[in-house]
Predict the structure.
Amino acid sequence: MLIYTQYFLPILRSSQTQPEVRPMDKKMDQTEFPHHRSGGPVLVPEEWLDLLYKRSYLYEGLVYQDFLKAAVEITNSKIGYFHLFCEEQNTIKLTVWSDAVFPICTTSHTQHYPVKNAGIWADSLRLLQPVIHNDYPRQSSPDGLPEGHFPLTRHLSVPVFHHDQVVGILGVGNNEQPYGQSMGYELMKFTQRGYVIVEQKISEIVSHRNTRLEIAQTDTVSLLIKMVSCLTGAASLRDEYTSRHSQNVAEIAVRIGQQMGLGNAAILGLRLGSLVHDIGKIAIPSEILTKPRELNPAEYELIKTHVVRGAEIFASMDFPWPILEMISQHHERLDGSGYPQGLRSEAIVLEARIIAVADVFDSMASHRPYRYAPGIHKAIEELKQGRAILYDPYVVDALLSVLAEADESLWRLYPKVSFYDPPH
């Protein structure tokens, strides 16, 4: 009854030899959902569904991420993935992965993967029912898999249905105990109920996005963008670096957002938020901002107040985008080590996570009043080391793709010394 598998692949490859697949018994197991994880029971499916229903979202990816997180937790698994399925083209759109995958594998924002090229992890799509692989090393394909793929000892995948149509595939892996039939069907029941909420949240996001798009297309918003650009330009009279930095961050953040597939209205809000992300520095004495030496601890603490000061400047304005959060959260980090609130992961809005990566890159690729630029190579190294720890892995991967495809319009923003290879 058990099927075997060895590796979980966020960046997928075809399987030349498919092991024989034996589908599970059609009978639905009605027993209570088991918990194997040490440290006590986690939230039960009903509690996860309730959390998913009550939470508000700005972007589809965040909904899918929480949907997957719930599935990983309730099955006591360590890794997981959720990918959308296009029945008309018979392709899988690589969508989201669990956090444990990020240290090993990079993400993809637009890749469509033909089902015919997918390995046994996609058998649940072919059979339209749960499929279990509990010990694949005993039946690995003859050609093996490339070095560096995420190890998978056990794997359970289910097709995700909505209105009697297959809309995706969700897989979990590396439970400390073998996956059983009851867990497979309980996961399938959870995904069917959960995806109803997912679709509801997606509809809310689309409605909100359309509203933002209508607002973004007005002359008022166009005028606002011009005013903000003038405002950041005027800031150069007292701090030329901050003004140039804000313009650069906006350019990079917009390119990241486009790479991640954000809509035009979201991109417009991202540009606006990026332009004013450091606006609070107008409340910082210019002699500190332009100090030609490294800041002392007291001066650094004063500099850190710029995020709160900046949010206060726009506190009375009602934006169709989370501008206040972009200003106040762009120094927050996924692990809670940032400031001013020590927010973690999903508590930080996506736009702020994008600006954070663009901000770090531009800061390290540019000269500062107290030091020369460490360089683009050092900036990339910092972001790679902090990927999935400090910085959103999807955002970092999007920036790396942007840099790989960048032309002169981006590179001209940085001093030539920034391109030199770092000394070994």
Notes: The first strand starts at residue 7 and ends at 8. Residues 181-216 form the longest helix (36 residues).
